[in-house]
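Appendix B, record 7
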Amino acid sequence: MSRVENMNRVLRTLQSSSPDVEASALISEDGLMIASALPQHIEEARVGAMSSSILSLGSRAARELERGNLKEVLVRGDQGFAVLMSAGSGSLLLALATESAKLGLLFLDTRRAAEEIKRVL
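Structure tokens (predicted):
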């Protein structure tokens, strides 16, 4: 099985094992889509660029505010959550979750997926 197939498997497993995760993607630091389990109506290039920018700004803010290294960024909208975190080797994991998601479980599941991606990379 290729690395891309393994990464897609990790994303599918994240979504199937965590009922509140609706979509996920693995994005390079520079905003290019590596693997994706996003709905068809979502423009992957735009999501990749925005996710990369958000994580970069979050890292800079954490340093400037003396909060240490960034662990994750949480975006909360009225229709749910977006969680972004480093997945090693210059990549980031994006998970989109429902508005009723339990944040503790969401962070646990996304961290596990990020660790699995680090092993694949």
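Remarks on this record: The longest strand covers residues 21-28. The mean pLDDT is 94.
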